[in-house]
Amino acid sequence: MRRIAFINEKGGTCKTTLCVNMGAWLARRCGRRVLVVDLDTQGHAGKSLGVDVRAVAPTVRELLLGEASLDEVALSTAVPGLDLVPANKAFASFPVEVAHRQDRAERLRAMIERLPRDR
After folding, report:
1. pTM to 2 decimals?
2. pLDDT by residue for the chain (119 residues), tens digit each?
């Protein structure tokens, strides 16, 4: 399983556009199973894929807090093979909620490593 992260603290650097389009390309053209995990409190990856993230629950917040499973959070998209773990404004509280946890920096990596290889 390959992991690709689009990271930059500055906004407007095309992270979401690159992520969603690369994911769609890998799913559609290469026949890969792709999981886009949105970590943006604005939920733009979901919005780009046609999801009304304001109404979605549970989200990546609940997944990373251990309150929901991947099967409960992941949404299918209109692109075959491309699934989404959505985010929304509720994710803004996540840093405070995990500030006291020693594993806070490793939660996403640990969740991804638990994914079945065929997902």
Report:
1. 0.90
2. 788 999 998 989 999 999 999 999 999 999 999 999 999 999 999 999 999 999 899 999 999 999 999 999 999 999 999 999 999 999 999 999 999 999 988 888 888 888 776 54
- Strand 82-85 relative to strand 75-76: parallel, antiparallel, unpaired? antiparallel
The answer for residues whose C-beta is within 8 angstroms of residue 57's C-beta and 6 or more apart is 90
* Two structure tokens written together for 49: 């894929």
Q: Give the three-state DSSP class for 104.
A: helix
Which residues, other chains included, contact 66 with Cβ-Cβ below 8 Å and sequence gap of 6+? none
Tokens matching residue 61 = 């917040």
Q: List % helix, strand, coil for the chain (3-state, nearest 5).
A: 45, 10, 50
